[in-house]
Amino acid sequence: MNRPAPAIGFSVNGQAVEVPTAPARRLSEVLRRALGLTGTKVGCDAGDCGACTVLVDGAPVCACLTPVAHVAGRAVETVEGLAAGGEMSRLQEAFLAHGAAQCGICTPGMLMAAAALLRQNHRPDRAAVEEALSGVLCRCTGYAAIIDAVLDAVGNGPAARAPDLGRGGVVGRPLPRLDGAPKVLGTECYGADHLPEGTLEVRAIRSPHAAARFALGDIGAWLKAQREGLMVFTAADIPGENRFGTIPAYADQPALAEGRVRFRGEAVALVAGPAEAIEAADLAAFPVAWEPEAALLSPDEAEAVGAPLLHPGRAGNIVAAGRVCCGDAEVALAQAAHVVEGAVETAFVEHAYIEPEAGVAWMEGETLVIRASTQSPVMDRDDTARVLGLAPERVRVVPCATGGGFGAKLDLSVQPLIGLVALKTGRPARMVWTRPESMAASTKRHPARMRARVGCDGEGRLVGMEFDGVFDTGAYASWGPTVAVRVPVHASGPYRIPNYHATGRGVHTNNPVSGAFRGFGVPQAAILQETLFDRLADAAGIDRLEFRLRNALREGDATVCGQRPGGVGIAACLEALAPRWRAGLAEAEAWNASGGAIRRGVGVASCWYGCGNTAIANPATIRIGITREGRVRLHQGAADIGQGADTVITQIAADALGLPLEAIERVGYDTALTPDCGKTSGSRQTFITGNAALRAGRALRARILALSNAGAEARIAIEPGRILVSEGAVRREIRLADLAEDAQGYVLSAEESYDPPTTPLDENGQGAPYAVYGWGAQMAEVEVDMELGTVRVRRITAAHDVGRAINPLLARGQIEGGIAQGLGLALMEEYIPARTENLHDYLIPTTGDMPEIDTILIEVADPEGPFGAKGLGEHALIPTAPAILNAIRHASGAVLTRLPALPHRVLAAMRAGEAGR
Amino acid sequence: MQELFRPRDLSEALAILAARSEVRPAAGCTDLFPATAAPALQGAHIDLTALEELSGISRTPEGFRVGAATTWREAIEADLPPAFEMLKEAAREVGSPQIQNAGTIGGNLCNASPAADGVPCLLALDAQVELASAEGRRMLPLGKFITGPRQTALGPGELLVAVHVPGEAARGASRFLKLGARRYLVISIAMVAVRLVVEEGRVASAAVAVGACSPVARRLEAVEAALVGAEATPALAARVRAADVAAALSPIDDVRADAGYRLEAAAVLVRRAVSELVTHAGECAA
Questions:
Q1: Angstroms from A287 CA to nearest CA on chain B
Q2: CA-based nearest residue to A61, from B70, B130, B108, B98
Q3: What pLDDT digit, counting tens, does each position of B33-66 carry?
Q4: Residue B58: which CATH number?
Q5: Residues B63 and B161 in one domain
Q6: CATH assignment of the domain containing B195
Q7: Which ipTM did the prediction report?
Q8: What residues does the 2Fe-2S ferredoxin-type domain cover (chain A) (predicted)?
Q9: Inter-chain residue contact A846 with B73, CB threshold 8 Å
Q10: What's the pTM value of the predicted model, to 2 decimals?
């Protein structure tokens, strides 16, 4: 058994290699570990995601499904081989130019699948590209940019994807992302890609039960039966406070469970050791005596009288509740000319980023260093430090690329676990979750059970609305309180509703932990609200778009919280849809007149979304420094998880300074080097960190101008060792060597913070919870198969008011990606614990599911945003699902009350609609 | 313990299987790897991809022979008569191009998933499977080979070496329709394979099979009987009676759809496949 494995010979990117390896090893493992070619990514180990696509003798295969023996004597090509001699291929350049790489984790697989196609077919059309890329899942882009890039690379598609909205500076220009080159070259380092010498691999033992007491058995005896070098860590080894949580007041989740588990997939112990020993370990035999308990699997069960409490002190298993009231909704509805009511139930939705949670931790002297994929470096540092009993300064979170987050990588995952092992052993410790492990143990979108009533007067003016939403927050608090508070604020949609009563609550169950997922409950609420509005418009006999325009908030109007926000752009968005709306209605009518099993329909829905935390502080701080040599360094601590903060913040800083983009070096998030920019969530980075960058840039510019006695309009140029300031014909020079260096090595620097001005909500939810809102409206055109209940979305027209598009290319990417997730939410995504813990039972959209998307960027400047900019990341997903559902109803009469709208549910809803008529 | 045998010829492979009952056959590995979280296949396997006798599609005096280790990609690219069109259509729906490049037709049959894309098509081609062991060879109708979900009639030491399609069944035109909740990379809710032979304007023979609606894909004999002899006009599809479809099937409720829906969808899909075939009736001619 210990004989050295015979070598297997093949070529990789033209180079002959001989690898001593077991012949039945996955090719992906051999490429990544034995050959160090980490450009090939592993997303599922099951052939479901295609991230590991490589070419074998020119044909694309999943490296995770290929035993290395199969490539003996053959030619393997990986992403590292695409850039011949370090020169990006045309395909890679096109990916970069089109924004085809957002988080970048699927990019190597996409590139390889595309490269295989282009060798066979020198001028493929869109359909051929869609089919060739159909085996690679992307969760960020909605595929449009990727398909455009492939077509452009062969001169068969548009060269530019986004308008140039620049007005002199770099703000407004559709620049390719600044961190894009490593993503298309395959050199980017993600959570699983960094392997220091002597690293211990860490595996978790997880609960197979949703609720159970447990006792650990004879671990010593188990260890004796394993290879040498294995170590076990349990809750008893945790030196600090064994609980974490994104909201400190609600922190309730143990890093390793103590005698009791509350959801399937909860970790109870860690096994660490050298890779070979871990691979051989019989983890299934790890000694745990489980005593399963009755599990509470729905909020109904959890709120029932006498139900056991998951957490002491949370009566009724309610983690938190929110409420927004104005006027008298009950009276208003009683007097309304038209009233509709309805209920909607949504499912657990999985983030399904293609990069499962992964990272490595090691000690540098007394400091624990953690390099893991994350959306929230400073929160990771503080929470991990608490669990491990360290002062926050003793934990340093350093950057690695994050292969998609969408909310779930705000919560701790591997950090306290690898931190514990590194701290206890002094050796680097690495953990890479498997796909089923990621799906079981990470957070989900809250399932919602919502009811609402809404009424209007005879002219179609909204007079009142009642809304109640119960959200299954699962075993631990995570972001449940945020959802409970955010939903009642937003459940009105961006409309004037004088009488409003909305409540929301999060309820603990023994289900997976529900946390943050792009929109914090607002997408669920919008599904009910926007579908009810369609029915109300019909009841009032008013065109559905016109109904929304009639009720849309206008500048100076009060929201249901009594706030009068600035830069209200919803009407502009709805108006931008009007031409397509009229055409779409006419086309659908003409199509349907000819009969047949396929009917067409159109639907519209709006969104609004407050950027940043709800009525609590969430500052960001940016530092910019100039070295004696004349290097300008931007300390940018906002985690870029693919959305583009690195690029957007740098664009803002450049224009604030009045310097070209190329003059600025970025120092990426690193808790030792970058001030806290807060978490990447709540669509807050462009707005909040952007404002900090704007302030820091302007402050530094002001210092430079003051040093040279120049006026505000002076031009600044930076050269090695000096700054040149010119004003008309007058030129002045600042010699940097003459200036004193500060402790950070800068001769000139500025650090500025921004915290959005909000006011707390009173007991009726009245106040100013957000300083900036973003607005949007989308229109869906669908086909419904009246015999099968299948739905095909043909086109989405999306108008989003971003205030100011700092980077139209990235903004468009956010919209297209949001639409893909909204489409999945509407039509196919449903996470069921223990049943859909993989990417073939849990479905996310593929290339073939995406419609044509027309994006319309609207710029109604916000008085508070940097250059007028508003947030966008979450907004884009909110209108998609209700717009699709409204189009399904328009086409078929089906009113869906349970999501996703799988074919059998659509067919049943169609029948129910017919029966009801 | 990990072992991978790579025999060069069939007799060597059969000798290994005879000597080591725990050795599992492996070809494209597209079902084997997803079943483990480990970085390598666990246990002992015998790799069949280097065996000449298991590869490729050829004509035989009796009809067509499809080597068990023929990949879906090879099936798509093979020069085959229109009766095989449904098999090619199914091949394009198996997973993704990556899966089609590795996964094999024999593996699809031996894996015996109720939702195996290849099975309805091969049932509608009256396929027989050729099994070999150190003891000798035998032929079995495909319908008798797959005995239940994840169960086959393979005996100890026995290997599926080829699928045979008799010349009589390689006639007519065919269509495969797959229904899933997304466009690509999807496990079927229901799928149908239909082959019609039209002579002098009438259906001379019909083969109709449905997958993912019973533990093993089924031929729908009552539906076939209702089609045979009828005029190949657009009215033909109306002869597909829901009751005849339902009688042959026993679907379950699962995360993809409920049983009642599957029965309805199967009938709709069979009618559509029939209808599309008669619209191009010329191609159905034997």
A1: 20
A2: B98
A3: 999 999 999 999 999 999 999 999 999 999 999 9
A4: 3.30.465.10
A5: yes
A6: 3.30.390.50
A7: 0.97
A8: 6-82
A9: no
A10: 0.98
